[in-house]
Amino acid sequence: MIELMHPGLLLVAAGVALAPLRGRARAALTLLAPAVAVALVLALPEGQIWAGSFLGYPIVPFAVDRLSRLFALVFAVMAFGGGLFALKQASRVELPAAFVYAGSAIGVTLAGDLLTVFVFWELMAVGSTLVIWSAGTKDAYRASMRYAMVHLAGGVVLMAGIVGHVAATGSTGFGRMALDSPAQWLILFGFLVNAGAPPLSAWLPDAYPEASWSGTVFLSAFTTKTAVYVLLRGFPGTELLVFVGLVMVFYGIVYALLENDMRRILAYSIVNQVGFMLVGIGIGTQLSLNGAAAHAFTHILYKALLLMSAGAVLYETGRRKCTDLGGLFRTMPLTMVCGTIGALSISAFPLTSGFVSKSMVAKAALDGHLEVVFLLLTAASAGVFLHAGIKFPWFVFFQKDSGLRPPDPPWSQRLAMLLFAALCVGLGVFYEPLYRLLPFPVDFVPYTGAHVVGMLQLLLFSGLAFFVMLPLLKRTLTITLDTDWFYRRLGPVLVSGLESMIVAGDRFVRRAALGTVRAGLRAVTSAFGERGRLARATSTAGMVTWVVVLLTLYLLFYYASQR
Amino acid sequence: MQPHWLVRPRTIRLLWMLFALVLALTVGAEFFVSESAHEGLAHTFGFGAWYGFGACTALILFARLIGMFLKRPDNYYDTGDD
Question: Taking CB atoms and an 8 Å cutoff, what residues of chain B touch A253?
């Protein structure tokens, strides 16, 4: 019986059903559907559940193993928490779109073949674009279009890769790939676009902060983490990912340090955190893959919590820039405490969820004798505390007194924040259940004296650096140019330059063609026109004279030839 | 009106002293935890402390450097047609 219920499709269907609903029925379905999905994910047996064929290729649209259950579980939990947080959302598009988005993300994790992955992958792009779009502002509309362009382009590359892979191997199966054919490179590229990897990382901080106060909470969870999931399944141990991950880690920190928009700070920090996961995938040992998977799980929860607290501030104040905010701890104590728990978790403070997951990746680097990678990851851990752990709560809730005195948000938002804060602390203390869900057996003890002391030193001295250098971190009304400059500025300039070149070229060609035609016309007119040589009247006498001349010439030539 | 107790200069001074004490304690605690099996830089005394502080300083300065070239007013992309 349970085999008939696909938790992803259930959420997609719930999203469609939510669209016309209002009031209590809508709230009930919003909470019930993800709760059922969570139960289903936990209850599903392992193995192939649905199998069939499509265009002569075998497909497995529904399969479960340890890795897919882990991701499907956290996605379903996220849909529940996000739905609870968004109960007061006035937009009638956002929640249905978010459920389609969440359901298709679960669909990717439960897909046993590449064709199913692709179908849900694209459905995710549609759902997430609608989530951004439903914020209803002009900026959000534009951002959603740019977002859709990047993801559709990524989808095309992925499709090309999948088609090439299936044609070459004859198999639609989604397993480990070796990067030994162009098709597999295309698949990797398609996956990395969604992971927020350079050079296209700019789509993420460009689009996510434009969504509504609740929309960004959903967006933070699914797209990048499904990319982490497919990379875990398809490309574990691919060394390239270590380098890509390290670039993302530092890119996220540096850009977040320069940023003024509180939710864009957190968006850059998503890229940073996904970088940690990619490094784990690239290292490719059981410990590092476990670490990447565990970190994706905990990251979804604490990043959602951080964006909920930012969303609550936006909901209450309508402001999103650090320069406009500050001092909110006075009247939003609950939001401040929950935001700070999220901030401590992302920084991997002991007793929070980040501590038990992130340290697995660092330990794997150390065990693999990748000292440089370890040192860079440690520097990055310090940097995470700097840009997300302190910077976000400090500038939003403390800093100066902005004069704003907003209350804590409505109960639905408070409840969602409390739930996720409890999960962040709970997983940090009782980490065994999470470790049991990981793809490989875990032989890792996070709480050793040396590790706890080392981490506390690292984080607290990072905090010292923050407060000592606070004048250098003063927020300004600026943005920082990113690779989206190429398609938002250079592209239009090039296109308009090209346009004027085409106009000029077109004018030249037309003029030259017209000139040629006119000259031809003149020549014809002078020959055939009414005054033209061939059109003039000629006398009969003249004609007879010419005939005589011709006949005489003919006679002369005739005699000459007879001789 | 009295400012909130948390933002009074006296409290802030107290918080700094407390912070300094905690920092000293975390470094001091290293004497009491068992030696880890790390090699190289990670083995040095107070690694977390000096490395964390140094890394953050470097990152902040690097961000400032990048910012000198890449910062723009936040209405940079506004097209003005709305």
Answer: 59, 63
